[in-house]
Amino acid sequence: MSLPIPLEEIFVEEKEVPAEFQLPGLINQKEYLSNGEMKQWDGDMHTVVSPVYFKTADGLKPRVIGSYPLCTGKEANEALDAAVAAYDNGKGEWPTMSVSERIHYVEEFTHKMIEKKDLVVKLIMWEIGKSYTDSVKEFDRTVEYIYLTIDALKDIDRQSSRFEIEQGIIAQIRRSPLGVVLCMGPFNYPLNETFTTLIPAIIMGNTLLFKPPKHGTLLHYPLLEAFRDCFPKGVVNTIYGRGHNIVPGLMQSGKVNVLTLIGSSKVANELKKLHPKVNRLRAILGLDAKNAAIVTAKADIGLAVSETVLGSLSFNGQRCTALKIIFVHQSIAEEFAKQLSEQVNKLAYGMPWQKGVAITPLPEPHKPGYLKDCIEDAKANGAKVINENGGETLASFVYPAVVFPVNKKMKLYREEQFGPVIPVVPYDELDEPVEYLIESTHGQQVSIFSNDEKEVAELIDPLVNQVSRVNINCQCQRGPDVFPFTGRKDSAEGTLSVVDALRAFSIRSLVATKLTDKNKQLINRIVDSHESNFLSTKYIF
Hints:
Elements: H1 7-10, E1 27-28, E2 31-34, E3 37-40, E4 45-56, E5 59-69, H2 73-87, H3 93-96, H4 99-115, H5 117-128, H6 132-160, E6 164-166, E7 169-177, E8 180-184, H7 192-203, E9 207-211, H8 224-230, E10 236-238, H9 243-252, E11 258-262, H10 265-274, E12 282-286, E13 291-295, H11 301-313, E14 323-329, H12 330-344, H13 367-380, E15 384-385, E16 393-394, E17 397-398, E18 401-404, H14 411-414, E19 421-427, H15 431-439, E20 442-443, E21 445-449, H16 453-463, E22 469-472, E23 488-489, E24 492-493, H17 498-504, E25 506-514, H18 517-529
Parallel strand pairs: 1-5, 8-9, 8-11, 9-10, 11-12, 13-14, 13-21, 14-19, 18-19, 21-22
Antiparallel strand pairs: 2-3, 4-5, 6-7, 7-25, 12-24, 15-18, 16-17, 20-23
């Protein structure tokens, strides 16, 4: 049976794209932000190609969106020096500024950011193939995250605006910055997940080197002037170029105090080893994940199927929190796989600007080939693609595949596919998926589907020691953003959530003295004169 819409027909001619989704011409970025200046670049450029292909007289051709600078180590080191100078060993304007002033600057930036929403949303859509609806959601969620971060910092500062007296010592305890942060975000949530580290890093008084992801670079360009205008020079600096050419030198310099990366554990490990004083480097990392679902014989099959479809195929399965392997009890495995296939084949697919579309083109050029290899490997080891047309590929588009029954011999059992392929593994005893999670190098989340309280309880206790979040009768997910977001093993280092991120990019510092009359008078004079931003009882509303 053929697809309702043949893959050849989902690709259209460029003139057929509705005007409201079109970009205003090519976005050729020939400048970058360094030391408070938009510096011109006349060197090599990287051409940005969209995962969206168009029909032409010569066949399907990808849409060229624009280009961005391929800077060298020289420019990266200049940006590093600017960030180091702006921090000035903690003496700089930004790290010594009051919390209320830093909040004001971030609020000003957010207002300017919102003014660029239309262009940023379109660039998310065109650069990574995310549906327009989800691109809007990503922008809005990012703005919401910034405001939640501001509110959380106000709460922290209010709690710190008093003195504590213990054992004859009076002290004020606040959070202070760590230094220079190297921030590298992911392509799948290039705005949101980048800003969930970038904004807390800045607002806590650190200075920043920001390297956008390879796929999802241009969407940050409209925001560079806002960064320049809203923060003191050197606080935010952007670096461009091939990561393997420019990032190692930054780490080897020893001047980076915090590495924040959302990407692969292999890259994170290599970068950390380059730092000459690893004990001085704080790492805040969101890394690989192979989140499992465990569907027991006592599960609501319909609910488990609907949550699995959402969990495994939202943004084509290109999420660290996606469900990437599904363990189903043998007694219901055939029925589960059948219903799952039916639901997958009901999903709308097509171009990202189309209303209601769930499956869109993939931004990584190598991904369709890799997914095909995974499917062929599974077939060679006894599995089948059980949904009609599953795995069918054309250019950058891969139709979702449900692969069943998957076993230990297959790539899909071990490797994080990060795409629209759903491996379903039948099991006999609950010990089997539990052992899988114990032996796995990943440890982010798991979903349990069961209506039996004893069964769920018995799974919860061992699994909370293997992963950072256990979801009951629902898909894995990051939100709400106030909840902790982290992982065990190779899946994360550090905890990210609104409050946790503020703590991650800072350290508790205190000013203390013996509780004598002279010292009390001295402290009161400092507080009354408002000469110190740290030693202060100002209350932020």
